[in-house]
Amino acid sequence: MIALIAEKPSVAKDIARIIGATQRNDGYLSGNGYMVTWAFGHLIQLAMPEAYGVANFRKESLPILPPDFQLIPRQVKAEKGYKADPGVLKQLKVIKEVFDKCDRIIVATDAGREGELIFRYIFHYLNCRKPFVRLWISSLTDKAIREGLDNLQPGERYDNLYLSAKSRSEADWLIGINATQALSVAAGQGVFSLGRVQTPTLMMICSRYLENKHFVPAKFWQLKAATTSGEISFTAQSTAKWEQQPEAIAALQRVKDAGQLAVKSVERKEANQEPPLLYDLTTLQKEANTKLNFSADKTLSIAQSLYEKKVMSYPRTGSRYISEDVFDEMPERVALLGQYPRFAGYAAGLDGAALNRRSVNDSKVTDHHALIITENLPGELSKDERAVYELVAGRMLEAFSGKCVKDVTIAILSAGDTDFTVKGSVMKVAGWRTVFGEQETGGDEEDASLPPLQEGEGLPISNVELLEKQTKPKPLHTESSLLAAMENAGKELEDAELKASLKDAGIGTPATRAAIIETLFTRQYIVREKKNLVPTDKGLAVYGIVKDKKIADVEMTGMWETALAKIEAGSMDADTFRKGIEVYATQITAELLSVQLSVATGETCPCPKCNNGLILFYPKVAKCSNVDCTLTIFRNKCDKQLTDKQIVELVTKRKTGLIKGFKGKNGKAFDASLVLDEQFNVGFLFPEKKAKPKK
């Protein structure tokens, strides 16, 4: 008997159908010599500090450096602390029974770092010793699954991938737990979450916001001259920019006095624009944010859905290239789009043509190739799914199309010792730009329509004006620009040597960046204002205290990503990396314990249980600031969200006024007061029913 484990039920069912395991059982499918089971993403996690006998949020406990990490089932919030998720426990029991009955295991979790970690953590937690092989595929089409099953890879081939994933998981624990607890202890109130990638990302948002907010625009002046040659009128701007208005006015007068523009030089050249490369996940997320206003998380979710619907390749890819063998299939994929209404005409024009090879490079394909459509045309898709599918399909057509060719003319004109410049272009071959019919955008340098100009030619000035302008700050980050900054973390460094060493280092990975941004929203560190990402007061407070600390070091985080890639490649030892992280965690803990942090907390009141702490308010609970006190009041009571004011009343008076709109288990609404009993448990007090008048 052979076991097969997938990352989620839907994928398991697809594979089970292909291998003939069609008998349904509780938590698995069976048949034809196979037992097919599944996870629900990460079923196993690293144990929290209390598992190692460490008291949380105590100065004397920090730093927390477990000698060996313990694995536990995924936890969920309970009335008091956390407990193992019952659904996870049930499925782990099923997986164990399946593994025990089988001779070997086929690993069919997602073919990437996190997919490998999901399986290995389950495997080690269950103390399984069965041999396993790996299904490594880049799409979920029947053809890809069958080919993958015919070419199963030895499990040990992915040991380094697992070590890289395990190192990432443990590093995030060591830095996140120690940094969060150290800053929270130093603050003396509330919990301030910090993280290995989360905090440098917050730094990028806050520093850009403050730079923008404190930017003082400087005025400058330019001249704009209008002229005509033959039947064509056009304008040209001065190459000079004057910081003082009187100097600009003087130049304006000299140009007027000259009365005409002399053509100083004319440069004509043919400009070739190669098509863009195929998408990796990050470039797709950037484009979807710019064009569709989708968050990075939403785009990833839609791309995953399209992957599971078998119409798009594996989304969590960091490569923008495909290999030679995949390129061999591209004429068929292009021809397929001849049946897709939006691209039918263009795809038909590419049929039989030599496809552009710019995106073909075996050496630049990592675990997975760039995003492409599969051999399956989509059926019913939601509006958002169709929009993302068309981005990927359209980019595929662009990437394999011919270059865009333009005739570009750049002329320099002169009058009264001031030079003016103008640029014009004529499209000769639209090439790849035909797919979406998009034009370039270029601001001040927008191409003009120019007549044929000759050096030495004189042109009459029909008008010349003084333009008052001002310098502009860098715009606030959008998700698109933030993703680019995370991807290119090393590119804005001033140190040339460090910049070179971090040339290809980003922070986070294509697969994790969306989740990191969402974490900042969840922590209430940032909010969206239209498309911009803006820090909250809480986010700015954290930024102010950690901006010059090691935890905020973007370059360090970029170097870790490089180190994790080296572990995956087998060129760095995972234990060496772990020791370095432990040293770093010790350093940041010491740094953060010494800081002082002040954040406005709004409503607060003394704790009635211990009389030592203050009640602190969080999105889901109110709890005592004293770590030894267990008083916790959950905001959600019978589908009613309690306000800060109601909780203060409950804590100080032991009873609230009548609160309307609770919902019982039967779905019926009821009104009641809340009371805090002697054991500090919250209960209901119902209003007395008015006696019915006697008839």
TrEMBL record:
<protein>
    <submittedName>
        <fullName>Type IA DNA topoisomerase</fullName>
    </submittedName>
</protein>
